[in-house]
What we know:
- Two copies of one chain form a homodimer.
- The first copy, chain A, is mainly alpha-helical.
- The first copy, chain A, has one domain.
- The first copy, chain A, contains nine helices and no strands.
- Chain A has helices at 3-20, 30-37, 41-47, 51-76, 83-100, 102-110, 115-133, 144-164, 171-183.
- The longest helix of chain A is centred in the middle third of the chain and has 26 residues, at 51-76.
- The N and C termini of chain A lie far apart (51 Å).
- Chains A and B meet through helix 8 and helix 9 of A and helix 8 and helix 9 of B.
- The structure holds a DNA duplex (30 and 30 nucleotides).
Amino acid sequence: MDKREEKTINKIHEAFVKLINQRDYESLTIQDILEEAKISRSTFYAHYKTKDELLLKVSHHIFEHVFSKSLEEEKSHDFSKDTFYNYRHLIEHIYYHVLDEKELFKGILKSRGSEIFMKEFRKELLKVADSYYSNYHYQGEIPLELKKSISVEEFIVILNYWIKNDFQESPEEVADYFIKSFIN
Amino acid sequence: MDKREEKTINKIHEAFVKLINQRDYESLTIQDILEEAKISRSTFYAHYKTKDELLLKVSHHIFEHVFSKSLEEEKSHDFSKDTFYNYRHLIEHIYYHVLDEKELFKGILKSRGSEIFMKEFRKELLKVADSYYSNYHYQGEIPLELKKSISVEEFIVILNYWIKNDFQESPEEVADYFIKSFIN
DNA sequence: TAATAATCCTACATAGTGTTCGTTAACAAT
DNA sequence: ATTGTTAACGAACACTATGTAGGATTATTA
């Protein structure tokens, strides 16, 4: 990739991340991003069709860090034994990576108009839930699909609680909350 | 209230509800509402400062129907006995009222930019959770505040599942899902 | 019927979007 | 070092939506 291209994309991403911690995604204009990144209008449109496309790309970039690694690591483990133990650690792992990007998650989750981010986030979390249920034979009274969605939302509510508490708890503690609300 | 005023407010509400079932709240413009409701620009602004204010008022109007009645009814019951039984019925009651407004809930919950609605909806559901825990002595391992938020989100996930299934289940069945994921 | 007040219509300023195109400057490859 | 390529710039433009203002018109109330 051309050095100039790389530079502009970085500039745009950095400006975006900075601004999302100051105002809502919704109220953020492309105009604002241009000024913050100090690039020209046509340059932006050379890389992104819309503001949403930018958010989507930034989201994927974050999720690569938060999910890909953890899922790969856990795949090498023997999931058939100690299913629960491993799942707990996977969840903890993810919360741990979220902590690395805490400012961004804080900014986006509080923000209006972040449905694109949340939709992708849910997709990734659903993959995690899938990986659990592909090893654990589920026979609860609620449909499996619903059970999975519930666990995804539980992860998110706990994350919101964590953010609200300004990340006072450790990843272990919040993973504990998750597991307790998950089994109980 | 002046008859004319009442008429315009109805026209606006009706147009809004109709449009929200066709496109996302976010992409909906005031312009669109004016055309659909067949009113003039200045008339709209005589009643609402912004599109968000309109959504807020429409939301409150719906919640009056969905919540107020059910909460009042349940208040007259003796909550100290059969706490669980009563709670189950309260939840069922709410799902039942949601069914009355199914098209609107479907439209809004699927819609982008509906955070205002969801925020208010969560507030109302939290009141319901509060009413439960004010009678039931909670002593779980998760903080009570978090436990309440989890139950609110559970209600919403189940609602989304219900919508996705085009309301095939009965309110009894979905209330059952809620209770099962709530205690389990 | 007269006073009141809501609606309408037109116009306007403002702000953001998305596109175009000629110019300038940085880069990669030889 | 030179040259062809291509990204970034910047200015201009059409377009769409917001929000405001004022006077004319019409419906309501008393």
